[in-house]
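A quick aside before the break. I want you to see a complete sequence-to-structure record at least once, exactly as it would be stored in a machine-readable document. Don't worry about memorizing anything.
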Amino acid sequence: MLTNNRIQQAEEALKNANKKINNRYRLGYHIMAPANWINDPNGFAQYKGEYHAFYQCHPYDENWGPMHWGHVKSKDLVHWEYLPVALAPGDACDTGGCFSGSAVDNNGELTLIYTGHHYTDKENDLFYQNQNIAVSTDGITFEKVGENPVIAKPPVDSSHHFRDPKVWKHNDAWYMVLGNSTKQNVGRVILYGSSDLRKWEYIGVLAQSDGSLGYMWECPDFFELNGKYILMISPQGIKSNGDLYNNLYQTGYLVGDYNYEKNEFVHGSFTELDNGHDFYAAQTLLDDKGRRVVIGWMDMWESYMPTKADGWCGALTLPREITLGDHNKILMNPVEELTLLRDSEHNVCTNQSISKSYLVETKEDLLEVKAVFDLTNCSAQSVGLKIRGVNQEETVLTYHLDKQQLTLDCSKSGKVEDGVRNTIIETNEELSLRVFIDRSSIEIFVNDGQTTMTSRIYPNEDRLGIELFTENGDVRVKQITYWNLKDIWK
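That is the input. The structure line, written in tokens, reads:
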């Protein structure tokens, strides 16, 4: 009964806070909480023919605080519907927070597996963590099970960092990976097994840092893709290295081969999943179409978050289908259903040579843009695309042909400090950009998912339009098309 009261209180708080929100940066087609703070996606799953996404939220404040699980569902990964808060902390198994986790359909029972957080000294951030379960038969109301915690403590060689369970079924057994750190502050992922989701046995270490990949691996996800096994992790504590690892924390992956019987994962090197400013804590699901779909937190710890002044903070990325390309590289592309957002289509130019600047005027703030540059006979040193405000504001995407480097510059759209991100795109033939622009975000998909760049932006000016540009030469534009997009929340 106490849990129900806490959920009702959280719902009431969100309802009241929603009335006071300043909507200037509210997103039109991304998952956000009704108000206040959110971070990691949790429990991304399919249940009874619908997609469910949960997320870490604090219903009482626009800053991080005691974590609850917010909840939305969708039939098509595009149009989302708010459901009541699924988990509220305060029981003996989760006194300080219901931290991140996952969800599985266990023979018609939607089962949430999450981390209970417990402070021993909150002022000095001293805590311990355990793993818990909550179940539902309607996909809306969840009950924490009496067996909680189902895993009371980490292995003996572990530090207190012990969180973010991701659970899946292989043959007739359940498996769980957990983010962890050793007593020597080495990031790793550990593995458990169970026959019933209640009693878990420690199997061992799945993968561990070689000393260069940080002190803690958060939000692990482990799955098979095209005959290879992928371990997705969000390491904390990797040092920046040129254009790599420039966010406070990173999200990336290891690709290799796995033997269940030996718990042996032989893998290659760590690769960042997204090269923008704001992508973290990614989680995937395997849907009934056979697709591996991923979603992430579209923000970053300790970054500039002006929406806090507006009564809300945080969002999730668009859902993306991931596939395995050449050289074991993960490709991310928007799920096909996102074409449902398109309202009106504008084919601006086809097979046209441009030099210096070509402006497409549009005041719309919800846009999808497709721009394709032919680089085969390009005389320009660089080509690119700007999202322009009416005066000085702009978000700039530039491809430098000599360095084969793509630069995203958000320094004139709300990221004054540390506003630039760079990545390499090896192409001499074509640069294809698919760009989703929302009121306070930009998501860029390059050359069919070879690279993605995701960043929050915070423009103050009205939109002028989309500008294609070149420097020191001309380029043939094969296509520029844009679509006005619908606002799913209106």
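Two observations worth writing down. Helices lie at 2-18. The chain is about 5% helix and 55% strand. We'll return to this after the break.
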